[in-house]
Design goal:
Elements lengths: L7 E2 L2 E9 L3 E8 L4 E8 L9 H16 L9 E7 L2 E7 L16 H19 L13 E3 L5 E3 L4 H6 L2 H9 L21 H17 L9 H10 L14 H10 L11 H13 L7 H11 L20 H9 L2 H14 L52 E3 L5 E5 L2 E5 L13 E5 L2 E4 L5 H9 L33 H10 L7 H9 L50 E7 L20 E4 L18 E4 L8 E2 L3 E3 L3
Parallel strand pairs: 14-17
Antiparallel strand pairs: 1-2, 2-3, 3-4, 4-6, 5-6, 7-8, 9-10, 10-13, 11-12, 13-18, 14-15, 15-16
Length: 632
């Protein structure tokens, strides 16, 4: 396409060739109308099947308009688009500083590398929030301004020309559309990229900047796939012996072969990079990272790692490899390598040999385990409620979350002496046995669900007095915040559980003796609960041992209000009057009080206090816990 130099694309005069790739060629051009230099990316028609071109051009126009709406200080903006003699093109800002690729070749200081890549991470977080995936993050797509400011480019070309499965197949067969092999995430080989694929690619760039080497290189794309699937990640310290261990740990987590083992999203990765620069603790814990490090270096054999059945998915790797190499034997080897890659058990976290009982779906009930029970946790100042002899008083569910038994029987719900008229009258309720979370759901617990891409991350990352909270390992054992009612339901469902009813919550908090607080009738102070006037923010979920309920449940008074499944209706409580219908709209009940005077509440942390909340509400004062039913 060198013959285009000197020609005009409408008002744009082509000046010189800047670079060429599998899908497009980039030229420096002059905008004769606005008297400025621009960059023009001209799509190569020969890269695409001729019978698909009309459809592709329509998609090009649609997606170009979407890309032109991107507005971020570290994204090269799309200024215009058009077609010249059947050649579609994009017009973008021209940057005179070259590319990051031109600066690589030897190790750069890790701090300098992180500082240079953080703006690119911000740009990726922005586009991920707009449901756009770059799909081709690499040093040659990170441009530099004249002052050295990094800018990300090449958004959406693969998406523009590869949205449909059949189009993706054509692109793959022509050698375009997959991305750049050395920087591609494992799942990208099968045409299943996500936002975490961009995170992986950015981590490869960071790895190369810090070490001077890319993790996996080979003469062919198939060779890269084979190495990525079968070889351990070369530890960064192999190249940089004095690299801080935390920096290596962050790289290991970001470059995990399975998306679920990486950071949950770009925001979490950004906070981790900021923690490194500030010298703060990192999310990549020493235990998890040491296990991953051992597995990557071969210290843990595959047979020693628990195997988890793989998800059912079509194997798209074999056709890809056949196209790339054309050799049946090599394609079979690559297919075998991909099989190893997609077996989650190979890089699954090491777990203890004793597995907790699997929990059923929210609509099922637990079958009681047959074992000699231990006595329930109790407060010595108050009588405890005995448990059924056939049920364990404490279990851990399939997500390793501790839960305690609340036995079947009657209890007094509500009170006649409360100032809250919504809690009157006191009445007797019978409940079947159930297990309830021993602690409020923590940041760490909820992050596991976000990590599994089953939960949305909290609506805000901080707390009332902390700029970073959810993704900060210092607060891992603190209650999760900024989670609305639907988000809480989604988390409990991920665990095979559900939100407690208002009646279940109150019984777990007060027992069968109609006490006013979990610990009894003593007025609350800061040794018993985190109420208003104590620390002015959340505290660890296991902090107030003296304030546990008769069944050993922590935090049912103060710290955060807790969502229940129950719609706001007057007492007496009746489970069959529609208040437990999950599909009905209306305000839901939260229980337990919080560290903050909120929602017109005077700071009351009595177990019978009710708070009505819109289910879409999220804030720094509301959390939740989960329950599962038990079959007697």
């Amino acid at each position: 396409m060198s013959g285009l130099i000197g020609k005009k694309f409408e008002r744009y005069e082509i000046l010189e060739l800047l670079g060429a790739g599998g899908m497009a060629t980039v030229y420096k051009a002059f905008d004769t109308r606005l008297d400025r230099e621009v960059a023009i990316k001209v799509i190569r028609r020969e890269a695409f099947p001729s019978d698909e071109m009309e459809t592709l051009l329509k998609r090009f126009e649609r997606e170009s308009k979407s890309l032109a709406k991107l507005s971020h200080s570290n994204i090269v903006g799309v200024m215009d688009y058009g077609e010249h003699d059947g050649l579609p093109y994009l017009v973008m800002e021209y940057l005179s500083g070259g590319t990051l690729k031109e600066r690589l070749g030897k190790p750069l200081p890790w701090r300098e590398s992180i500082q240079m890549l953080l703006p690119i991470a911000y740009a990726l977080e922005y586009v991920h929030g707009m449901n756009i995936i770059n799909r081709d993050v690499k040093p040659s797509n990170i441009l530099l301004t004249g002052s050295g400011q990094p800018m990300l480019t090449d958004f959406g070309l693969v998406k523009i020309f590869g949205d449909k499965e059949k189009d993706a197949t054509h692109l793959t067969s022509s050698g375009t559309g997959l991305g750049t092999p050395d920087y591609m995430a494992p799942e990208q080989w099968t045409g299943e990229p996500t936002a975490q694929s961009d995170l992986y690619s950015l981590a490869v760039v960071l790895y190369e900047m810090i070490t001077g080497h890319r993790p996996y290189t080979a003469d062919t794309p198939a060779g890269v796939l084979l190495k990525q699937a079968t070889e351990p990640l070369p530890l960064p310290k192999r190249y940089i012996p004095d690299l801080p261990r935390d920096v290596e740990s962050v790289l290991l987590r970001a470059l995990a072969k399975e998306p679920k083992d990486r950071y949950p999203d770009m925001h979490a990765f950004i906070e981790e990079l900021q923690n490194l620069l500030a010298g703060r603790p990192v999310m990549a814990s020493s235990i998890k990272t040491s296990q991953l490090r051992d597995q990557m270096t071969g210290k843990v054999r595959r047979s020693e790692v628990p195997t988890i059945p793989p998800p059912v998915r079509r194997n798209k790797a074999l056709p890809i490899l056949l196209v790339f190499v054309g050799l049946f034997a090599l394609a079979v080897l690559a297919g075998g390598g991909y099989w190893a890659l997609t077996r989650p058990g190979i890089f699954a976290p090491v777990v203890t040999p004793t597995q907790p009982p699997n929990l059923p779906s929210p609509t099922e009930k637990i079958i009681p385990p047959t074992a000699t029970p231990e006595p329930p946790a109790t407060n010595t100042s108050e009588p405890s409620t005995p448990t059924e002899p056939s049920l364990l008083t404490e279990i851990t569910d399939k997500r390793n979350v501790p839960m305690v038994l609340v036995p079947a029987g009657e209890f007094t719900m509500g009170s006649d002496d409360t100032g809250d008229v919504g809690s009157r009258p006191a009445h007797e309720i019978y409940l079947d046995a159930f297990y309830i979370d021993k602690y409020e759901v923590t940041n760490e617990m909820y992050d596991a669900c976000v990590y599994a891409v089953e939960c949305r991350k909290p609506q805000q990352g901080g707390s009332a007095t902390r700029n970073t909270y959810f993704a900060n390992p210092v607060f891992a054992n603190f209650p999760v915040l900024y989670v609305d009612w639907k988000m809480a339901n989604a988390y409990c469902a991920w665990r095979g559980a559900r939100l407690p009813t208002e009646a279940e919550w109150e019984k777990a908090a007060r027992g069968a003796d109609a006490r006013l607080y979990p610990w009894g009738n003593q007025e609350p102070d800061c040794s018993l609960t985190n109420k208003a006037g104590c620390v002015a923010d959340t505290t660890p979920v296991d902090q107030h041992e003296a304030g546990v309920s008769p069944y050993g449940v922590f935090g049912m008074s103060g710290n955060v209000w807790e969502w229940t499944s129950t719609l706001l209706k007057p007492y007496p409580y009746k489970a069959d009057d529609g208040r437990e219908d999950p599909d009905k709209t209306g305000e839901r009940i939260a229980r337990g009080g919080s560290w903050h005077v909120f929602g017109g509440n005077s700071g009351n942390v009595r177990v019978d206090t009710r708070l009505k909340l819109d289910p879409g509400y999220y804030g720094g004062y509301v959390g939740f816990r989960c329950v599962v039913s038990v079959e007697e």
